[in-house]
Design goal:
Length: 88
């Protein structure tokens, strides 16, 4: 996560908005893809972040810690094992 104040300008509708630098690529991609955002915050390492969409939905942003990373690795290994055995 970036420090408070580290921003990038992102076009949202007809406005240019400063967005936390570490999530600016995600916010930019959403808006360029037709999913308009309303507000966002990365959490700055002090808590979960979020991206609120213009339609009211909220995308949660959670830092990936060591435990989660190990979980992703285990899931990838299970997927590889299934593929090797001919499973889906």
């Amino acid at each position: 996560m970036c420090a408070h104040g580290q921003t990038e300008i992102v076009k949202v509708g007809d406005r240019e908005i400063p967005i936390d630098a570490c999530i600016a690529p995600i916010v930019r991609a959403l808006n360029e893809g037709g999913v308009e955002t309303a507000m966002s915050c990365c959490g700055h390492g002090e808590g979960d972040g979020f991206i609120m969409l213009a339609d009211g939905r909220i995308l949660a942003i959670r830092p990936v810690g060591a435990f989660a990373a190990e979980g992703f690795q285990a899931m990838a290994e299970r997927f590889d094992n299934l593929r090797i055995r001919g499973g889906r």
